[in-house]
Amino acid sequence: MIIKFITVSAGLMMVVFVLELIRKERLTFKYAFAWLGVGALLVFFAVFDGLLYQLAYALGFQLPSNFIFFSLSGVFVVLSFLMTVFLCQQNERNDSMAQKIGILEFEIRQLKEELELKERAHENQKS
Protein backbone atom coordinates (compact mmCIF):
# COMPACT_ATOMS: atom_id res chain seq x y z
CA MET A 1 0.00 0.00 0.00
CA ILE A 2 2.84 2.40 0.79
CA ILE A 3 4.41 1.76 -2.62
CA LYS A 4 1.13 2.81 -4.27
CA PHE A 5 1.14 6.03 -2.26
CA ILE A 6 4.77 6.73 -3.21
CA THR A 7 4.11 5.97 -6.89
CA VAL A 8 0.97 8.11 -7.05
CA SER A 9 2.80 10.93 -5.24
CA ALA A 10 5.75 10.70 -7.62
CA GLY A 11 3.46 10.75 -10.66
CA LEU A 12 1.49 13.72 -9.39
CA MET A 13 4.67 15.60 -8.48
CA MET A 14 5.99 14.94 -11.98
CA VAL A 15 2.82 16.32 -13.57
CA VAL A 16 2.80 19.38 -11.29
CA PHE A 17 6.50 20.01 -11.98
CA VAL A 18 6.01 19.82 -15.76
CA LEU A 19 2.94 22.08 -15.58
CA GLU A 20 4.93 24.58 -13.52
CA LEU A 21 7.70 24.58 -16.15
CA ILE A 22 5.08 25.21 -18.83
CA ARG A 23 3.56 28.04 -16.78
CA LYS A 24 6.98 29.68 -16.35
CA GLU A 25 7.54 29.26 -20.12
CA ARG A 26 10.68 27.23 -19.57
CA LEU A 27 9.12 24.28 -21.40
CA THR A 28 6.65 24.28 -24.27
CA PHE A 29 3.58 22.06 -24.19
CA LYS A 30 4.75 20.44 -27.40
CA TYR A 31 7.76 18.93 -25.63
CA ALA A 32 6.09 18.50 -22.24
CA PHE A 33 3.27 16.36 -23.59
CA ALA A 34 5.31 13.15 -23.39
CA TRP A 35 6.32 13.83 -19.79
CA LEU A 36 2.73 14.60 -18.83
CA GLY A 37 1.74 11.29 -20.40
CA VAL A 38 4.40 9.41 -18.44
CA GLY A 39 3.24 11.01 -15.20
CA ALA A 40 -0.40 10.23 -15.96
CA LEU A 41 0.42 6.60 -16.80
CA LEU A 42 2.43 6.30 -13.60
CA VAL A 43 -0.56 7.44 -11.55
CA PHE A 44 -3.00 5.32 -13.57
CA PHE A 45 -1.05 2.07 -13.24
CA ALA A 46 -0.34 2.74 -9.56
CA VAL A 47 -4.06 3.08 -8.87
CA PHE A 48 -5.15 0.26 -11.19
CA ASP A 49 -2.24 -2.15 -10.73
CA GLY A 50 -4.40 -5.11 -11.76
CA LEU A 51 -4.52 -3.69 -15.29
CA LEU A 52 -0.74 -3.52 -15.32
CA TYR A 53 -0.51 -7.22 -14.41
CA GLN A 54 -3.09 -8.19 -17.03
CA LEU A 55 -1.44 -6.10 -19.74
CA ALA A 56 2.01 -7.49 -18.93
CA TYR A 57 0.82 -11.10 -19.06
CA ALA A 58 -1.25 -10.48 -22.20
CA LEU A 59 1.84 -9.17 -23.97
CA GLY A 60 3.88 -12.20 -22.89
CA PHE A 61 5.97 -10.76 -20.07
CA GLN A 62 6.69 -13.03 -17.12
CA LEU A 63 6.67 -10.17 -14.62
CA PRO A 64 5.09 -6.73 -14.69
CA SER A 65 8.47 -5.23 -13.78
CA ASN A 66 9.91 -6.59 -17.04
CA PHE A 67 7.06 -4.92 -18.91
CA ILE A 68 7.71 -1.63 -17.08
CA PHE A 69 11.44 -1.70 -17.89
CA PHE A 70 10.73 -2.60 -21.51
CA SER A 71 8.15 0.19 -21.79
CA LEU A 72 10.50 2.74 -20.21
CA SER A 73 13.24 1.71 -22.62
CA GLY A 74 10.84 2.31 -25.50
CA VAL A 75 9.82 5.69 -24.10
CA PHE A 76 13.46 6.75 -23.76
CA VAL A 77 14.23 5.63 -27.31
CA VAL A 78 11.30 7.68 -28.63
CA LEU A 79 12.31 10.71 -26.53
CA SER A 80 15.90 10.40 -27.77
CA PHE A 81 14.65 10.33 -31.35
CA LEU A 82 12.46 13.40 -30.76
CA MET A 83 15.36 15.26 -29.16
CA THR A 84 17.56 14.38 -32.15
CA VAL A 85 14.92 15.78 -34.51
CA PHE A 86 14.69 18.93 -32.37
CA LEU A 87 18.48 19.29 -32.36
CA CYS A 88 18.62 18.99 -36.16
CA GLN A 89 15.92 21.65 -36.51
CA GLN A 90 17.84 23.97 -34.19
CA ASN A 91 21.05 23.43 -36.18
CA GLU A 92 19.22 24.32 -39.40
CA ARG A 93 17.80 27.45 -37.75
CA ASN A 94 21.25 28.44 -36.49
CA ASP A 95 22.76 28.01 -39.96
CA SER A 96 19.94 30.04 -41.50
CA MET A 97 20.31 32.82 -38.92
CA ALA A 98 24.09 32.93 -39.41
CA GLN A 99 23.58 33.32 -43.16
CA LYS A 100 20.99 36.06 -42.67
CA ILE A 101 23.27 37.90 -40.23
CA GLY A 102 26.13 37.65 -42.72
CA ILE A 103 23.96 39.10 -45.49
CA LEU A 104 22.78 41.94 -43.23
CA GLU A 105 26.37 42.77 -42.19
CA PHE A 106 27.38 42.82 -45.86
CA GLU A 107 24.48 45.14 -46.74
CA ILE A 108 25.35 47.44 -43.81
CA ARG A 109 28.97 47.66 -45.02
CA GLN A 110 27.78 48.48 -48.53
CA LEU A 111 25.41 51.18 -47.26
CA LYS A 112 28.18 52.71 -45.13
CA GLU A 113 30.50 52.79 -48.13
CA GLU A 114 27.81 54.42 -50.27
CA LEU A 115 27.14 56.98 -47.55
CA GLU A 116 30.85 57.79 -47.24
CA LEU A 117 31.12 58.21 -51.02
CA LYS A 118 28.10 60.53 -51.06
CA GLU A 119 29.53 62.56 -48.16
CA ARG A 120 32.88 62.90 -49.96
CA ALA A 121 31.14 63.92 -53.17
CA HIS A 122 29.08 66.46 -51.24
CA GLU A 123 32.24 67.86 -49.58
CA ASN A 124 34.00 68.05 -52.95
CA GLN A 125 31.07 70.01 -54.39
CA LYS A 126 31.27 72.51 -51.52
CA SER A 127 34.94 73.19 -52.07
List the helices and strands and how they pair.
Blueprint: H1 2-23, H2 29-47, H3 49-58, H4 64-126
Helix pairs in contact: 1-2, 2-3, 3-4
Structural notes for this entry:
The structure is a single chain. By secondary structure, this protein is mainly α. The chain has 2 domains: 1-47; 64-127. The chain contains 4 helices and no strands. It has helices at residues 2-23, 29-47, 49-58, 64-126. Helix 1 (2-23) runs antiparallel to helix 2, helix 2 (29-47) packs across helix 3 (49-58) and helix 3 packs across helix 4.
Estimate the strand proportion.
under 5%
The global form is: rod-shaped
Number of strands: 0
| Oligomer type | single chain
Unreliable runs, pLDDT <50, ≥5 residues? none
Coarse structural class? mainly alpha
Q: Summarize the biggest pleated sheet.
A: none
Distance between the termini: 96 Å
Keywords:
single chain; 127 residues; mainly alpha; 2 domains; 4 helices; 90% helix; 0% strand
Give a brief outline of the structure.
This protein is mainly alpha-helical and 127 residues long. It is 90% helix and 0% strand. It starts with a helix and ends with a helix.
